[in-house]
Specification:
10 strands; single chain; 145 residues; 5-stranded antiparallel β-sheet
Amino acid sequence: MSDLKLIALDAEDLDVVSATTQDAIVRVGDMAFARGDRRFALMMNRFAWERGDGRSRDRAGVRKRAALHFDHVTGVRAAGLDLNAHEGVLELLTIRFTEGQAPGGQVDLAFAGGATIRLEVEVLEARLQDLGAAWATKVKPEHAA
C-alpha cells in the first residue's frame, strides 16, 4: 500500500482530504499553531479508508501515521476541548472550508463529542502526507447510516 500525499487548494480538494482523514485519532499535544510561520499542523493516526473496497465485512483495517498542515493561517480558535490536556485524544470527523472574504475563509476541524478547531486562513492551502508507519487495527470505524 503506497503512502498518500495530497494538497488542497479549494473546498473540493479539502473534501478529499476530509474523507481520507475521517476517524483519524489525534492527540491534543500533537497539534500546534506556529504563529510566526502562519501554519497550523497536526499529527494523526488515520484509518486507511482507501485500502478497502467498501463492501468488505472484515472488521480489520490499517492505520497510518500522517501529518496534516494548513498554511496562511492568521488565527486559531478551539471550542469543546482542553488545549492543556496534551495527552487528550480526539477523533477527527470532518474538515470543512467556508469561504469568507475571497480567497480567505475558515477551516473547521470537527471532532467526535462536539470539539472543534477553527482556522482563519488568508487562502486555503492544506497538505496531507503519510509518514510511512502503518499497522493493523482490529476495529474498523463504523457510522450510523
